[in-house]
Design a protein that fits this description.
One of its GO terms (cellular component) is mitochondrial inner membrane. Residues 54-218 form the Thioredoxin domain. Cu cation binds at residues 92, 96, 183. This is Thioredoxin domain-containing protein. One of its GO terms (molecular function) is copper chaperone activity. The protein is α/β, with parallel strands linked by helices. It folds into two domains: 22-55; 64-224, Glutaredoxin (3-Layer(aba) Sandwich), CATH 3.40.30. Helix content is 42%, strand content 15%. The chain contains five helices and seven strands; from the N terminus they run H-E-E-E-H-E-H-E-H-E-E-H. It has helices at residues 17-55, 95-114, 132-139, 153-162, 206-224; strands spanning 64-67, 72-74, 82-88, 118-124, 146-150, 187-190, 196-200. The chain has a seven-stranded mixed sheet, sandwiched between helices. A hairpin with a 5-residue loop joins strand 6 and strand 7 (196-200). The chain is elongated.
Length: 228
């Protein structure tokens, strides 16, 4: 009997020219897809930055005052730290001490978590009575990261205008006079670039301020790659 020899067929390669072309086309497609998605993310991030910038109130500006250590202090000294800015006067009977205590209660837990990246400035709205020695004595009872600042009446008026702060001290106030000063009661949060972030009123608790600051630091770090 004659047996037919059936030719053996070896394994066929699946990586044909057609498959190779499809593989390359898929790779190119994926590359452009991810490039497109990356560009969308960059655009979204930029829009977020622009919206945050546009949404900021125009609070703050250039100033040069004298610190309670009798040294010049300008808006440039706010850069590189998260700042709490508060306007008041040393003869304030209750509101200013309460707000300065609150600032201390905010800075203390934040420093434990983030380190020394915070400072606060207490800007006097009573230039007639708040001298360097008076401010120095007054701040001994508050957080050491609070810096007292003062200037003459014209300079004080300009700083208050830049920060949209109202104060009632007359330009010819008697340094020995027994008077109270009506003024705006807000603690301003400024970022490490010196830009306004938020204003906290009397009703805002220290815990609420701490949580808001943490949120702002996280967003700042996401945008800039650093905390300050």
């Amino acid at each position: 009997m004659t047996h037919l020899q059936v030719p053996r067929i070896g394994p066929r390669s699946v990586f044909t020219p057609k498959a190779a072309a499809l593989f390359v086309a898929t790779g190119i497609g994926l590359y452009y897809y991810f490039q497109h998605e990356k560009q969308k993310l960059l655009e979204q991030k930029q829009k977020k930055l622009e919206s945050r910038s546009v949404g900021r109130a125009h609070v703050g500006g250039p100033f040069t005052l004298t610190s309670h250590e009798n040294k010049p202090f300008s808006d440039k000294d706010l850069l590189g730290k998260w700042n709490f800015v508060y306007f008041g006067f040393t003869n304030c009977p209750d509101i200013c001490p309460a707000e300065l205590d609150k600032i201390g209660a905010v800075i203390t837990p934040l420093e434990k978590e983030y380190g020394n990246i915070f400072q606060s400035v207490f800007i006097s709205v009573d230039p007639a009575r708040d001298t360097v020695p008076q401010m120095k004595r007054y701040l001994e009872d508050f957080h050491p990261r609070i810096i007292g600042l003062m200037g003459d009446y014209a300079t004080t008026k300009n700083v208050c205008k830049a920060y949209r702060v109202y104060f009632s001290t007359p330009p010819n106030a008697d340094p020995k006079g027994d008077y109270l000063v009506d003024h705006s009661i807000y603690v301003y949060l400024m970022d490490p670039k010196g830009q306004f972030v938020e204003a906290f009123g009397q009703s805002t608790t220290s815990e609420e301020v701490v949580e808001r600051v943490k949120k702002e630091i996280a967003e700042y770090e996401q945008e800039t790659g650093r905390k300050v």
